[in-house]
Amino acid sequence: MSYGGFEAVRQVGLRVPPRRITALIGPSGCGKSTVLRCLNRMNDLIPGARVGGTVLYHGEDLYTPQVDAIEVRRRIGMVFRRPNPFPKSVYDNVAYGPRITGHRRQDLPDVVEQALRRAALWEEVEDKLKQNALSLSGGRRQRLCIARAIAVRPEALLMDEPCSALDLIATTRIEDLMQNLAADYTTVIVTHNMQQAPRVSDRTAFFTVEADEHGERHGRLIEYDLTTKVFANPADPRTEDYITGRFG
User: Where is the ABC transporter domain (predicted)?
Assistant: First the structure.
């Protein structure tokens, strides 16, 4: 993955298992979020961004010209590190996606309720549906963003440090929610939290930053395996150094 003439991350090859949680870990600047955004073509929105290689989804390369990037993002939803609800009501936030993808108006209340229930938020907001979403707490905003993402019935969810702006209680709720949703959604998360990855994920990919022969630094995938193995018995000493806090 390159930005202009700079290759931000290289030598990435991993297979994301369906209906499991995969964590991407590593120091700042190693390319975790860049790789995550490649998976649903969010990097297309950045001028000068370019993806090399292939990203296969159900056997089809997502970067071929005939693939519709908007449809890719509908099928592979995304939740960002800072809760970013629209400046609209709670109801309109969740209804937005289904509305523009053609759901009938009379079906929207059920779609909204179902998404909010899946996001473990319905009981907290059922009497606040007309309230501006920006008035919610940070944890509720993030769960609302998850409800908004799943309301269009994606097949996968990408989460870029979804708990980094939240307190411990809100983080616990989001982690519980991620694990509950994993039964239905293939999930990939980026996290800096070395306790979070083993708590929630099935597989873990460790990235780091290394200099090439010209002294230019690039992100690189070092190790990808079952989370239990990566944290208990990493194959690469660089992985062990990072997860034990010796660097990063």
Answer: 1-234
